Amino acid sequence: METGVVKYDVTEAALEKMQEYLELTITGIDDEAGFSLVHQARMVVKGHRVAVEKRRKELKADALEWGRKVDSEAKRLYGLMEPVEIHLQAEEDKVTKEKETIKAEKARKEKERVETILCAIEKIKGFVVTSPTVPSGKIQALIDELVDIDVTKDVFQEFVEEAYIAKQSALTGLVKAFEDRVTWERAEGERKAEAERLAKEKKAQDAREKALAEERAKMEAEKAELERAKKEERERQERAEFERKTREEAKARAEHEAKEKADREAKQAKREAECLAAEKARQEVLRPDKEKLLAYAEKILTIPEPLVKSDAADRIIRDVKRGMKGIAAMITKEVEAL
After folding, report:
1. Do residues 88 and 49 make contact, with C-beta atoms less than 8 angstroms apart?
2. Residue 232 falls within a domain, yes or no?
C-alpha cells in the first residue's frame, strides 16, 4: 500500500492552465471558433476529472485511511476544477439552447407555411355547387373568382401541382354546373313563355264565356222579372180577397167575442159580489177573536222584567225579551192573515 502524499495524474500547472479557461466565452451563435475552444477546453477539464476519479478509486481500494486521503485530495481538486467545468458547460449550453430555439422557431414557421398553403388549396376545393337551384349568374361569379386565383410556384411552392389539380377539378365542376343550370334556365324560360301564352288564351276564353254568361243572365233576369210581376199581381189579388174574407170573419168573431165577454163579466161580477159578502160575514165572525189575539200580543210586550244581577241571568232575560217580541209579531202577522 502506498503511503505519503497522494498523487494524481494532473499537475498543478495543468490546474492553473484550466483556471484560464474561465476567461473563455462564446459571443453568439455564429462564433464557431469560440464554441470550438470552449468545447475543447471542457473536454480537457472533463478528461482530467475522469482521470482523477479513476485514480481515486484505485488509491482508495488499498485502505480506508488511504481512501480518506485520496478523497480529501480529490475533493480539493474537484473544488478547483468544478467551477471551470460548470463555466464551460454554461457557455456551451447558451449556444446549444439558442440553436434549439432557432430550430423550433424554424419548425413552427415551416408548419405555419405548409398549413397556409394547404388552407389555400382547401379554399380552392371549396369552389363547388352542390344545389341545383343556384342561379347561373352566381355560378359564373364563382368561376370568375376561381380563374383569378394564380396557382404559381411562388405561392404554392412544393404543393403547386396539388393546387393546380384542385383548381382544374373545381373549375371543371363549376363549368359543368353552369352548363346544367343554363340548360335548365333556358328550358324554364321556354316553359314559362308557354305557360304565359296558355294563360293569355285561357283569359281570352274566360272573357268570352263571361260575356255569354252575362248575356244569358240578363235574359234570365228579364224573364224572371216578368214572372215576378205576374206573380205579384196574382198574389195581390189573392191577398185582397183574403183580406176581405178576413175582415168579414173578424167582424163576426169580434161580435161573438164581445157577447161572450159581456156574459163572462156579468158572471164574474156576480161571483165577486158573492165572495165579498161571504168574506165580510167571515170577518165579522172572526172579529172578536182577532181583537182578543191583538190584545194578547200587546200584553206580552208589557210583561215587566225581573231585576237580576248576574250577566248570565241578564243575558237570559234579553233572550226571552227578544223571543216575546218575536211571538207578539207572529201573532199580529197571523191575525192579519185570517
Report:
1. no
2. no
Helix (H) / strand (E) element for 9: namely none
Residues 109 and 16 placed together within one structural domain of the fold: yes
Write out the three cell numbers for 124.
380552392
Query: Cα–Cα distance between 71 and 38 in angstroms, integer?
Result: 28
**Of 202, 219, 236, the domain-final residue:** 219
Query: How far apart are alpha carbons 160 and 166 in whole angstroms?
Result: 10
Q: pLDDT tens across 82-106, in order? A: 898 888 888 888 888 888 889 999 9
pTM value is 0.38
Domain shared by 90 and 170, yes or no: no
Terminal C-alpha separation, the chain? 161
Query: Does some domain include residue 152?
Result: yes
CB 26 within 8 A of CB 38: yes
pLDDT for residue 57 is more than 70: yes
4 torsion bin: left (phi>0), alpha (psi -120 to 50), beta (else): left
Determine the length of the chain.
338
Domain that includes residue 155, residue range: 121-219
> 129-177: per-residue pLDDT in tens?
878 888 989 999 999 988 988 889 988 989 999 999 999 999 999 899 9
70 contacts: CB under 8 Å, gap ≥ 6: 6, 55, 56, 59, 60
How many structural domains compose the chain?
Answer: 3
* pLDDT band of 116, cuts 50, 70, 90: very high
Residue 178: which residues within 8 A CB-CB, separation 6 or more? 136, 139, 140, 143
C-alpha cell at 206: 274566360
Indicate whether 298 belongs to any domain: no
pLDDT of 19 higher than 80: yes
Looking at the structure, do residues 158 and 132 belong to the same domain, yes or no? yes
Residue ending a domain, choose from 82, 116, 150: 116
